[in-house]
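Exercise: predict the fold of this chain.
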Amino acid sequence: MYTHLKTHLQQELNAIKEAGLYKDERILSSPQGVFIEVKGRRVINMCANNYLGLSNHPAIVSAAKAALDRRGYGMSSVRFICGTQDIHKELEQRLSSFLNMEESILYTSCFDANTGLFETLLDERDAILSDELNHASIIDGIRLCKAKRLRFRHMDMNDLEERLKEATDSRFRLVATDGVFSMDGDVAPLRDICTLAERYDAIVMVDDSHATGFFGPNGRGSIEHCGVEGKVDIITSTLGKAMGGATGGFTGSTKEIVSFLRQRSRPYLFSNTLAPMVVAATIEALNLTERGVDLREHLSMNTTYFREEITRLGFDVRKGVHPIVPIMTGEAALASELASSLFEEGVYVAAFSYPVVPKGQARIRVQISAAHTKSDLDFVLDKFGKAGKALHIL
């Protein structure tokens, strides 16, 4: 039977390549950072989620090494059997305090946090209202749930209200949204969402993976940025971006919701616990984050500067205030060619095309870090200008 499947897959892969949609993985031979080694070359990295520049911070590396000696390598079990150490509880408490939530629960990733949320809390008597551009993990989590699924147009509050009216007969209504949308850098209109949720007695869930630790005055994410702390019922997020860049995720919510997740959430019950070194390193990352006013201010300055200058060059840039800076090319092949040209000039970026983004909306997604200097950004801007002219984009 595999002979037939093999032929089918080869044809599909060839079609992907011919459409310019094939995604190669470049292999890094260095730690994550502003500069990385790829294929024997030193290039500046402009596409990592390393927002605060903590992925290879000496204090975090030191904390991980110490945890290996004191706590061991892995837990070899799930939490409720023999997979919980005191540092796991400490991190959960620290996250709850940082985000002003009653309790938190750790997962091996935010993807698991999202896939373990909806089916645990809701059933066929309920309704989930989801932004059409929500992250794949939210989409997959909703697919696992028997609740009625209602999509609303991206950040369209009139459409959300219509969907809420449509769901008035449901037992519970839950509005699910990214806090910051990863491909566009759009910030969800959380104040308006919370107002509608109050009006229609709905629960609000926000995946804040691209905001936790650096967005908002104190780094508490899009909820703080939008001024709706205390109004969002459930926060899911990651430890793998600004918070040290390793792995792991969590859900923060009320005591009752978190307690129920511990009893029934399948990714939590049936997945190994986060490794002790990751937990200890994340605690240190949280220490740095809470003291990271200078890092956040520098990141904000870098973001404003790069957005203004790349727009001045003439590129089609999605407007916004977030360190995610989408530079639109439209055509997938052009995005891929631009990324390749920039790599040859010492700038590492990734082209995004279908199915990661809609057809006809291919782009280069630049991500700014607090670790970038102004001279780093000027170097990147110069190379973008040269590549853009050579490819007749500018």
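Check your answer against the key: Residues 170 and 328 are 40 Å apart (CA to CA).
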